[in-house]
Amino acid sequence: MGDGPALVERIAERRAGVGDPRALVGELRRTLVLVPFDRGGLWTAEFGGVRWVCGFTDEAALTRFAEERAVVEGAGAAARSWEYAVFRGARLLDEVIPAMGVPAGVAVNVADPDGSMLFPPVVGIVPDAVAVDADVPGAGQQR
Hints:
Layout: H1 4-15, H2 21-30, E1 32-38, E2 41-42, E3 44-47, E4 50-55, H3 59-73, H4 76-79, E5 84-88, H5 89-99, E6 104-108, E7 117-119
């Protein structure tokens, strides 16, 4: 069973330009991901025409996010209680993302500049039915 530290290690490998991207996606699929709630729903952010579900590999990564939010929102953000749901990465990719009804992906550890990773809504990451590149010839193939 994959865990947060293993995913963080795979992210570091990819950021260093080594490692297999498919192994990184596989590790996300096996990992338990913490997704905070915001106004009754999962915490998401809009960027580049994609709705990103913000997920964290452990409570420490979520705490770093809360501290960053405190800078933006004021001191109360860090002090507030952060409720979250725990999803296996595969469930996020295969069930939650398709149910959103818009192009959506997963943003992991967004408050960690050297340890964050985006998993966009493309073939090989999300189901083909919701992948934005599903109609593109050669989509999802290694180059």
